[in-house]
Amino acid sequence: MKASTHKIPLRSAVLTASLFPLLLPLAGCLGGSGSDDDDNTRTGTFVDSAVAGLDYQTAGGASGKTSDTGEFTYASGETVSFAIGDLALGEAVGAEMLTPLSIIDGASGVDDQRVSNMLVLLQSLDADGNLNNGIQITEAISEQVSLNAASLTLDQAPADFRASLTTLVAELQTDGAFSDTDPRARVLVSAADAQAHFARSTSPRLIVSTQAGELSGFEADESTWQFLGIPYAKPPLGNLRWRAPQQPEPWEGVRDAIAWSDQAAQNPGLERFGEGGMSEDSLYLNVTAPKDAEKLPVMVWFHGGGFTSLTSNTVPFNNPKAVASRGVVQVAVNQRLGPFGYIAHPELSAESGYNGSGNYGQMDLVMALEWVQDNIEAFGGDPDNVTIFGESGGGRKVLSLMSSPQAKGLFHKAISQSGTLYPDTRSLASAEAIGSDLQNNLNAASLAEMREKSWLEVVSAAAALVPYTNVDNYYQPTTERVSFETGADNDVPFMFVVNTNDTIDPINTVKEVFPWMAPLRDAPTYATLFSHQPAGWKERGVQAYHAAELAYVFNMPESVITHYQLGLVLDPATGRSLVIGDLNGNGVSGSAGDPADIFASAGFDETDDLVIDRMLTIWTNFAKTGNPSVEGAIEYPEYDAQVQEYVEISDTLETKAGIADEFADD
User: Alpha helix (H) ranges present in 260-355?
Assistant: First the structure.
């Protein structure tokens, strides 16, 4: 399908020129149409995402509520005031688009506390918590706001405003006013997140037509469009839990793609490492594309965290200054994890129709790749040139997809960073036994009762279980290893990457798996050893730890803060987390979690800029041509089992032999 794209032309902003000198006329894509007829009636749209259910009144006496698409009517030149019940928000002369910034008298930017507080208010009160279908202020929410209006003063210190809003949100939660799929109490949107969403919502926009409907993305930077939270499957809720993913429901009109989707359900303590909320409703992907993209190579990213944790919803993994800056369309995928994505069970096998179960998270990735085949051309990508890449658990997901008949023809190159085939694929019986353990832990009498448990209950019951891929007679008819040994795999150009101080399973895979795998394949294999560290940590003896290359592949040195907080940055003298003091004198040390101290201790400099440039070139050259060589810098040798040639990336590029020998002592 050749889907269409069109830019929405820029026009003079209704917002203050100091903040938004040029602004997308969102009214057109959100439903506003300017003049309705010759009686001087106009239609405008209220935007922080389109806001439905606001009370409005014009100076001429007309009143109503903003429509499902945020529309209001007014006469040319008359003032329109907005409120939620008895809580006045502000007023402005009617226009095709009005926003929280434009209705606050004298506000010069979103850092004005009245504007910032309003953004937090509107986004925190959205009925279903999904800003990509607009902000919905229901009658029940409006009534409760009226009861609390006296304490909700927009022009007050943010901390005081948040305290009052917290009380209101708790009351709404108790009353059942929110309909989102996360059973946890609603949490207020932070001021920083609210302002970031508003910036995306009011930036220049691009509309793309996909098979399910039209999407409106935003300008990520001067050279790049971005689309967040694109559904590639139905939410796997209720009876769809532990089933293969289903095609998403089509929608009418234009759906926003400006808000982060939920991260996959997992240990809630990990939510802080990603963007967006957390729930089972997580089958979404993000697309980042150059503005001039046409028939560009596509790189599809699978995040790490084993099969149980973390997310592709991070700023680094969607950085427009990373692979998209090198002539590639990037897709970042979220999929089911842990007990939702990798659990088999006898009853599931009985109902499946293929006498097997498990691997639902891998099936999600297959459906995401099918979405790419069907839709990526509309974003400027080439469906016939797709590279899958992932790190750690994402690296194993890559290897698994290479072995699965269900993924045949859906990708054309593959990169596994610290991926592993240890341990080998579980048998169906072993995986079903783990599913039965989960049932016992849930105290559930049947599969139906298991499906009725909240995702929090399932996560808790699975805390001691270790789910991953299994033979299932469908996605994985045989073990992953047997697939490669029998030539049933998807034989595409392949690059593997390992770090000098990697974890034991990727190291053992380099020593014992890739040597037997390479001779079985016709397509070329390339090997990379990443050994670089920024100067500050290098001086302290820190070696390239598990995931260290991500700060460079995604052009985001700040990623090392998260790596440190996840316990990945190790002191070679102790084998424990590197001790980092209070380098900026704020009373909180790096070891205690101060991000500024962590980043300063790493000591990034211009050498790291060079390493970033080289790695982006290597990765994207591989995606473009199937060969990672860089003209004038490095000629990658093909890896074979005997010589095991590879390229080492440090502050230089060097071809060497015997990559397994690097780990002889491990």
Answer: 338-341, 346-352
Residues 433/466, Cβ–Cβ less than 8 Å: no
Contact 331, 301 (CB under 8 A): yes
Pull the structure tokens for residue 634. 């490095």
**Residue 45: beta bridge partners?**
71, 97
Q: Please say if the pLDDT value at position 7 is more than 60.
A: no
Judging by DSSP bridges, how do beta strands 413-417 and 494-499 pair with one another?
Answer: parallel
> Residue 191 has which token pair?
């001021």
pLDDT tens for each residue of 474-502:
999 999 999 999 999 999 999 999 999 99
Write the burial class of residue 404 (CB in 10 Å: 0-12 exposed, 13-18 middle, 19+ buried).
Answer: buried
pTM of the model: 0.94
Q: Which residues of 522-535 are buried (b: 16+ CB within 10 A; e: fewer)?
A: eebbbbbbbbbbbe
List, for residues 64-111, the tens digit of each pLDDT value.
999 999 999 999 999 999 999 999 999 999 999 999 999 999 999 999
**Separation of alpha carbons 107 and 325, rounded Å:** 35
